[in-house]
Specification:
By secondary structure, this protein is α/β, with parallel strands linked by helices. It has two domains: 243 residues, 3-Layer(aba) Sandwich (Rossmann fold); 159 residues, Thiamin diphosphate (ThDP)-binding fold, Pyr/PP domains (Rossmann fold). 34% of the residues lie in helices and 18% in strands. It has a seven-stranded mixed β-sheet, sandwiched between helices. Helix 1 packs parallel to helix 7 and helix 3 packs parallel to helix 5. The radius of gyration is 23 Å and the shape is globular.
Length: 423
């Protein structure tokens, strides 16, 4: 069987949802697994993260330059964590046969501290399951790197047994520093996982990766196994990632993750914030939501603690569409990178309540001016409320069987800043 056929079978066997944005060399792979086409790669990954929060496994199938569009939620997920496995299937095009660049996606493994698996002809199906198991074990997205040569090669079709695991979200009591520390500690243990992986084979010089031949086979390409340090000749398709990363050491052990009590305070909305009435209604209803970047992320901290997760700027809409059905986002974040997801959600008629806090400023970073989103939302037929109109908010803060956008307008008070509450 061809590599594309074996990998397609494994993706269907090992995942519950599949998303794609077509492009060489993965267009046919997305079609063979009947992957849902999405407006862009960032939204596709956010959908997958929403599935993950519900315990579902998901695959996101994109070409090399599409990985760039995933960068923000990809890195955010490493610190935030996840539940069900998510595999980012990256179709690299080292010879630029059908791409604008000859990008090598393996470098994202180093940047985002991801497990990266590059299967060969004997490890195609096993590599898919191994990536998902690693995603769950290390609570972050895993990458499966594919190239045209492997997709077109004759490969072994080894049956794969799905073994669902369960990742974890970052602890609610951790500060952002604590989340990063905890994620780094998990990455440190990933080096031992790579060195012990049965996907690799150590039979002397030279080493081959992906579709290229070699007595030694290196499949877990990030982090590299410790055995790779002794290999002199490496055959790899693309840039010299393996050659240049031989002997890289794991991070040094960290102190325990910092929690809010260690820091001595938590941050919440300004004492006279116009949106506190809205938050009080949601708190009284115990409304689980996905929070965005900006002031909306304060929905994750005391005294509200309604946010299940936050995966960065503009991410709340697509994540919520596959999980909580409630997204909290600011006006700036919506226009920054959330609008594409909202378009996709409306086109697919996914039930969601998208709550937009419209204060026409970027309150988290110093109240720089932001555009009013209303002229760009007319197609969504938004419901517009004033933040102080609590009776209307009581009626409108509901999820229905269709997508709804609720724009709540309020003015940030002058001279105020986020409240710090001491423990």
């Amino acid at each position: 069987m061809k590599g594309i056929d074996v990998i397609a079978e494994a993706i269907l066997a090992c995942t519950d949802r599949q998303y794609t944005v077509p492009g060489f060399p993965i267009t046919d792979l997305g079609a063979r697994v009947h992957a849902e086409m999405v407006i862009n790669e960032k939204t596709a990954l956010e959908y997958a993260l929403g599935d993950s929060l519900q315990g579902r496994r998901a695959a996101v199938i994109v070409k090399n330059v599409g990985v760039n569009a995933c960068a923000d939620p990809l890195l955010q997920a490493t610190a935030q964590g996840l539940i069900g496995g998510v595999v980012l299937v990256a179709g690299d095009d080292p010879d630029a046969q059908g791409s604008q660049t000859a990008q090598d996606s393996r470098y994202y493994g180093e940047l985002a501290e991801l497990p990266v698996i590059e299967p060969g002809t004997a490890t195609c199906s096993l590599g898919v399951e191994a990536a998902l198991e690693a995603s769950e074990h290390f609570s972050r997205v895993a990458m499966l790197r594919l190239t045209p040569t492997l997709l077109e090669a004759d490969v072994e079709n080894i049956p794969v047994q799905r073994k669902d695991g369960k990742g974890r979200l970052s602890e609610r009591t951790w500060t952002m520093n604590g989340r990063v520390t905890a994620a780094e500690e998990l990455y440190r243990t990933m080096f031992a996982w790579s060195s012990a992986s049965p996907l690799n084979r150590w039979d002397g010089e030279p080493a081959g990766a992906g579709p290229l031949p070699g007595k030694t086979r290196i499949v877990t390409v990030n982090p590299l196994p410790k055995q790779a340090a002794a290999i002199q000749e490496v055959r790899e398709y693309g840039r010299t990632f393996i050659r240049d990363h031989r002997g890289v050491q794991p991070p040094v052990p960290q102190k325990r993750p910092q929690c809010l009590e260690d820091r001595g305070h938590y941050k919440t909305f300004c004492s006279n914030c116009p949106f506190k009435g809205m938050m009080d209604i949601l708190k009284a209803r115990n409304t689980a939501m996905i929070c965005d970047a900006g002031c909306s992320v304060l929905g994750m901290t005391p005294p509200y603690e309604l946010g299940v997760a936050s995966y960065g700027m503009g991410a709340s809409i697509a994540v919520a569409a596959r999980s909580t059905k409630v997204a909290l986002i600011g006006d700036y974040a919506l226009l920054h990178s959330g609008l594409n997801a909202l378009i996709d959600v409306y086109e697919k008629r996914l039930p969601i309540l998208c709550i937009v806090m419209n204060n026409e400023c970027t309150a988290m970073t110093g109240k720089q001016p932001a555009y009013n989103p209303l002229p760009y939302l007319q197609w969504a037929d938004p419901v517009i409320c004033r933040a102080e109109d609590l009776s209307e908010l009581e009626r409108e803060l509901v999820v229905t069987d269709r997508p709804r956008t609720l724009v709540i307008s309020g003015t940030c008070p002058e001279g105020c800043s986020h409240e710090l509450v001491e423990y």
